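Backbone Fold Data
Goal — C-alpha cells
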Amino acid sequence: MPDAPAVRLTAITKRFPGVVANRDINLSVDQGEVHALCGENGAGKSTLMKILYGMQRPDEGTIEINGEPVHFKSPADAIARGIGMVHQHFKLADNLTVLENVILGAEPRRRWRIDFAAARARIEEMSRRYGLRVEPDALVETLGVGDRQRVEILKVLYRGARILILDEPTAVLVPQEVEELFDNLRELRSEGLTVMFISHKLDEVLQVADAITVIRRGSTVAKCLDPAEVTARQLAELMVGSELPTPELRESTVTEDVQLEVDDLTVRTAEGRAVVDGVSLRIRRGEIVGLAGVEGNGQGELIEAIMGIRHAGTGRIRYRSGDDLSDITGWPTRRRREAGIGYIPEDRHRHGLVLEGPLWENRMLGHQTERPNVRGPWIDRRGARRDTARIVDEYDVRTPGIDVPAAALSGGNQQKLIVGREMSGEPRLLIAAHPTRGIDVGAQAAIWDYLRQARAAGLAVLLISADLEELIGMSDTLHVILRGRLVAEVDPGTVTPEELGSAMTGAEGP
C-alpha cells in the first residue's frame, strides 16, 4: 500500500492504576514526514510513543505500519518493522567506543567472529549519507551531548529503522547543537525516512516540523496542523486549553525589610580563580530579585555560596532569621535550611530528587529534620505521607499516588513537587534556579502563580533564569552578572530582551 501512512494509530487508550494516560487518541503520520507531537508534560506523549515502540501495550485501539495492522509485544517487534526510538535520556555505554555502541546486540559476524571491518564501513557510509559526523573509534565518555545524540540516531538507523521516534530531542542541547540536529532531521527526511518527535518547545516545532499533532490530558485536540498556518502562541493555547499566561508582576509588594544581604562576596576555584568576584546585593521581603547572565558566569557558584554548599572566600552573607540580620557566612547548609531558606536547584534530577524514591520520601529531602517529616528524633512517615498528599493536591502534581517513584512523573510534575516541597517549609527566602527550565507552558504558568502568591505573602526570592522574558516579567529588581561580577542593574519595566542580552554578553548595555 504505497499511499498508506507510515504510521496510523486509531482510538488508542492506555490506563494505569489511578490514571488514564491515553484516551481514544488518533494519529496519522505520512511517509517521509517530520511530524511533531506536542503537549504539556504529562499529557501522554511519551506513553503513546512507547506504545508505538512496543514498550507498552494499548488497552484499546489499533496500530498500522505502512497500512498493515501490527501487534507489538516488545521493542524487538517494533525494530523488526523498521521503527527505532531515541530516548530523552541516552542509553549508551560510556566505556565503549561509538562503533561498539552502535553494533551492540546487532553485531555482524564472519566465521563466528564480529566483523568489525564490515561494521566500520557501514557506520562510516551511514554517517556520511545522513550527515551525522561521528568518529567510530571515539570513546562515548569523551563525547558531548550533541555527539551522543547522533550516536543514538545512528544506532537505530544501523538496525534498519525507517521510522524514527525522538523523545524531547532538544531538551539537553545548546542552540548550535539544536541547529545541527535539525539539519540531520532534514537530511533523514530527504532520504525518505519518517521522523516523529515529542516536544513542548514550540518555536523549534514550527521551525522543523511538516505536520503537528497536539495532545492535551491524554486526548488528541488538534491533528496534522500545518506549521505555516499556526503560531507558537496558538499551539500553546491548544496545549493548555486556555489563553496563554504571561510572566508578569502586578502591584508592588516590596517592603523595607531586608531578608538577605550579600556584601563583597568572592568565591574562588581550587586553582584560585575568582568565579564570584566582589558581588553585593540585597533582597527585601516581598521582592523578587532577578539575576541575568549567560550560563557559566558565576551565578551557580553564587547560589551555592548563599546555600552554604560552597565556601565563600571573602565577603559576608547576612540573613534575617529573627528580628535582626545575622551573619550566616559560616553556617552549614542544614542550619540555613532550618532557618527558612528554600532552594529550587538548577538540575532537578541531580540535586532535587531521588528518582528511584517514592514521592513521600522526596518530600522530606532538605527538610528531614523538620515537621511534619519528624516527630522528636524519629522520622514521621505518616506525617510525611499526609503532607505529600496535600502538596500533590494543592500544586496539581499529576500522579497515580504518592508511592510511585519520582522518575515516573513527567518533568513538569517533578518540578511542581519540588516547588511544593520548598514552599511547604514556610521559607523566608527562596533561591529559585531556573524554576521553569524544561517544562511546558502549563506547568510554567503554575510556577509563576506560586511565586507571585508567595511574594505577596512576604517571601524574598532570588530568581536565576535563562528565559529573558521570564526574568523581565517576574523581577522587581534585575541585575546582570558577567564573569562573576554584577555589571548592571536594569529596570524590568523598561528593558527589552535584546537590551538585556547585550548587557549579558558585555556589549553596549541598556
